[in-house]
Amino acid sequence: MLNDLQYISMFSHSTPEIVMNLAVALLCGLLIGGLYRATYRGSGYVPGFTRSLIMLSMITAVVIMIIGNNLARAFGLVGAMSIIRFRTAVKDTMDIIFIFFSLATGMAAGVGYYRIAIVATLFIGAVFLVISKTHAALPKKREYLLQFYSQTGDKTTPAYQNILDEYCRNYSMINVKSIEEHDLVELSYHIRLKDPLTNSEFVHKLSSIRGVRHVNLFFDQENF
After folding, report:
1. pTM tops 0.70
2. Which one is the CATH code of 143-223: 3.30.70.260, 2.40.30.30, 3.60.40.10, 3.65.10.10?
């Protein structure tokens, strides 16, 4: 029995098979990376993450080909990978989804399941694209907490009021705090944007107003 476990059959991949596995993994990685780039709505898009998704799919395929059907290799690779420390924090839960997406397609390509890899990439990608474009997963009412500093000045209507009227469906002031040392007031609002996808543009325009500083927009512990 022990000998049987030690000499479990191993797949021997020919060069054309290796190239084909990597090509399918590359194709799926490119599709996943393009989908991520097209649907990302955050304010901190990192091009390197898109490239990482492509490489992750191919590297996963290589790992699966190395493991093959050999338990000893599998445990050896698990031990080797366990010493790696990943220090990059994942800021968005969707980033984790795309990481697993690349891993899954890379695994399928690595074992030669090309149809599963390609069909799954196309189908899951199409579903995610539809959800993203139709905003089906967004809540009907999405409230934000807006905080910023504004200089105290004349009694006229402040310039930021026009920006609030332009981007917000409704808003209400919840707190005003005086910052005497810098002749500033800290303002806090509960707001509801007309279009939740314009949060980055809204923050940028508000920050560009003279006298407005340190603009922060919060929702579910996310800071834009």
Report:
1. no
2. 3.30.70.260
